[in-house]
Amino acid sequence: MSAKLPRTAAAMLVAGLIWPTLVLAFDPLYPFVDPLRTMPEVVDTGVILPGDTAPIPCSVQKDFSRPLALAEAVDLALCNNPQIRSAWADIKIQAGAVGEARAAYLPALTGSLNRTKDQIRYSDTRYPSSNITRNTAQGTLSWRIFDFGGRSANRQAAESLLAAALANHNATLQKALSSVTQAYFDAVTAQATLTAKTASEDIARNTLHSAKIREDKGASSQSDTLQATTALAKSSLEKNRAQGEYEKARSVLGYILGISANTAILLPEDLAEHVGENGKALSLWLEETQKNHPAILAARNQLEAAQKRVTVARSAGLPTLGFSSSYYQNTRPGEAVTSIDAQETTVGLTLSIPIFDGFATSYKVRGAQAQVEQKEAALADTEHQIAMEVIKAHADAASALHNLEASAILLEAAQGALVVSQRKYDKGAADIMELLNTQAALSDAQKERIRCLAEWRSARLRLLASAGQIGRSAVRE
């Protein structure tokens, strides 16, 4: 009965070694893929941006024969951005590191099976030769029972880096949102500018036509016709430049969206006139940014991880206590097989005491402390940069909001002045210079109105992105 126990133990060892391998080979969804539950829930559910109720839909299909809305541009950019995909993969990498750190608390089991043929021949005939064939097995169980906080600090550092990876992914999303909204409004503004310049060219062409008719009737001199021709040439030049700026802005938008360069992007005809409110005071924006901005949270988590690394480095020079148990059948590793069946079992406790390592531990601790200082400086720099971005974006939004009313009044006055000037010129009550000046004033007023609308839309969303609070719902609004 006693002879069967080692064989039973060996059979169980073999089954324990083979079974997980077979399961993992044929069923990748087996729970052992993440047995320590290190993968964040967001990997399965998807990221939900601030203010949103659903994750980003990355199966978006866009019909480019229709105008591209800002919300559609945002979805395309977020799904195709390589930096976002890289940050997403970093979350999984850090989750794996957390798993490694947690695994240090569990025992490790190793084993091997061999079939060995051992032949021995002696030159002295007095000793008989031997020919032994044996099945051999070895198994070892090892478990670290105690150390001076090294495993705990390493686990906490890994968890902090995982939190930093999650926050960094959110920061990358905010940056991508800011980039795509800026590129979108640049393209829409460039298109609106092109439309305004085209209208100015048409007005200049009509003015030239009126000047030629008046010259043919003798009501004006050739000088008026030449000035109108010059104004038309200038308007055509400005329209051509606006066309180039529009094509460039549309190409930049296509690049940020991650679509083919040959894809023709249609944009809305003009900017919406709806105006919202700037909302909170600057102090509230800065306070919320310090608490919730993902880039700041990522920097703080990286600092916490660096602080834990100091403990890890120190514990490397301190004693550890471990437990081990081994089972050998017919041989030990590196030894010849026995001539008869034999089983051996060992159990032991090991106290490892580092005595001298050439001061390596001391320098590791110093290096870890220097990394803490580096992360502290990086956190301060991140907080400073983001605060400056929020301050600038808030000032831009406030300025743009104040300029909207003035630009509307300017455009309305310029349109009325042009109508009056055209009527007076047709009746001979005004000269060509007055008409051309009102045309130039109208062109400038249209340009300012387009700029103010675009600046308000862009500054508002940029303020939200700078504060780390922008989501797809804010874009749709």
List keywords for this structure.
477 residues, Outer membrane efflux proteins (OEP), 64% helix, alpha+beta, 11 helices
Explain how this protein is built.
- The longest helix is centred in the middle third of the chain and has 68 residues, at 150-217.
- This protein is elongated.
- The protein is α+β, with helices and mostly antiparallel strands.
- The protein is built from eleven helices and four strands.
- It starts with a helix and ends with a helix.
- The chain has one domain: Outer membrane efflux proteins (OEP) (Up-down Bundle), CATH 1.20.1600.10.
Major beta sheet, specifics? 4 strands, antiparallel
- Give me the side-by-side strand order of the main sheet: 1-2-3-4
What's the CATH topology label?
Answer: Outer membrane efflux proteins (OEP)
Question: Strand portion, in percent?
Answer: 5-15%
Could you tell me the radius of gyration in angstroms? Answer: 38 Å
Helix content: 55-70%
Order of helices and strands: HHHHEEHHHHEEHHH
**Strands, total number:** 4
Give the low-pLDDT segments.
Answer: 23-27
Structural class: alpha+beta
Total helical elements: 11
Overall geometry comes to: elongated
Distance between the termini: 79 Å
* Count of spatially separate domains: 1
The fourth-level CATH homologous superfamily is Outer membrane efflux proteins (OEP)
Calculate the mean pLDDT score and round it.
Answer: 82
Class in CATH?
Answer: Mainly Alpha
Please give the CATH architecture.
Answer: Up-down Bundle
